[in-house]
Amino acid sequence: MRIRYYLMDNPITSDPDDRRAVVVGYETVTEKEMFEYMTRAGSAITPAEAKANYEEIIGTFEYFLRLGYGVNTEFINIRPLIPGVYRGDDDKFEHGRNRIKYAAHLGRRYNRTADDVRVEKVSPPDNQPLPVTFEDVSSSTINDALTPGGVATLTGLRLKFSQADPKQGIFLIDSAKKEYRAERILSHTGKQIVFQLPAGLAPDDYTLEVRILLKGNKDVKRGSLTDRLTV
After folding, report:
1. How far apart are CA 210 and CA 20, in angstroms?
2. Mean pLDDT of 25-48
3. Cα–Cα distance, 170 to 192 (Å, whole number)
4. Residue 25 — pLDDT band, cuts 50, 70, 90?
5. Helix axes 31-38 and 47-66, enclosed angle (nearest 10)
6. CA-wise closest residue to 217 among 158, 146, 136
């Protein structure tokens, strides 16, 4: 399997010749496929042992995170974050009103696997919005967290839409396919949008989708951020 990508203008730099790669169409595996690989022909581990060891490892991570530790291993690095807005210097963290989140990144062992991955360049999609980078200002994270009611910046290409048309705009879609439209746009160009996130976002994973209607077209074009965002 190859990781497919296309090149697009880089909205971060001022050099008109700069491009950035956007990964498209990769597949994912779940615990099911991982257990099948662990117990493949010739393996010395049984399905029951694979699942038990997996649960033990996950439980160990959970144990230390509940104690307030970060985790630093060859497999994964995890650090705690406390996103959100606080009302003045005397405000403090309150469970229910505030939340602790975790930022996770692959450790050094898995970063080395990138040297062996094959890639394939493909053509970019035509005439559809291409959201690339989402910054949640409150948590200072990129393509990761959502802070309900907070301010966010989205960069990419072909992001211009008519906010007056309810079929267009920025939409956040939860795991149950419920949609939340960003109603307050603070600034807006074809390459960058600053906007306020909907205040009613419940804890969940969300897909960010930009919908535009090009002049002379009847069908709305859609483009999704590759990464899922989490409240």
Report:
1. 19
2. 88
3. 12
4. low
5. 130
6. 158
